[in-house]
């Protein structure tokens, strides 16, 4: 299947159905780790698989398991990128190491999409995630990140992470000006309807046992080195600061 056809299909999945997005962070002893966001759009495959199959043609009958990096995408779009401002090009550069994996199985009614990258320090993630909005300036690039550019890069806040071995924080600071502008946008109501039954799940894994978490809804793994917190996706989009919390680790 051609890359752009697959990306268009991914965009369709992201905009027509409720889905579950899971944000994963794995932190190693030395502070390095892996970040990923998993989208499960299987519900649309179950509800409208036949119609989507007609749109996709013969490709819909194939089991798909494909991976590409944004670096590959940017290489294909290098002429378009060259026309962007130096600032926009710099933002896109931060996304080069992100990998997108897509799995589709028509028989099992399964559609999964994962955006992932390795990091040397969780602080790096702040700049990279905010750079997702730069994909909107690249023709065809927005589809490559859907639903990621429609969620991670578009909830009117600046997200940051910190980790020093003693504490971990996740903090979103709301941009009140953007929030006010969005309130006047009729498309915001449509977005709210689309994601009304969607969930945003956080799963974080650490090398140390967790002493306490500021969010009372967090559940722990048996070894207390991992937490899971589930939110309505509307909270993520409309009240991103509700997802702020702090973790303290045992000595």
From TrEMBL:
Residues 1-20 form the signal peptide. It comes from the Bacteria. Keywords: Signal. This is Lipoprotein.
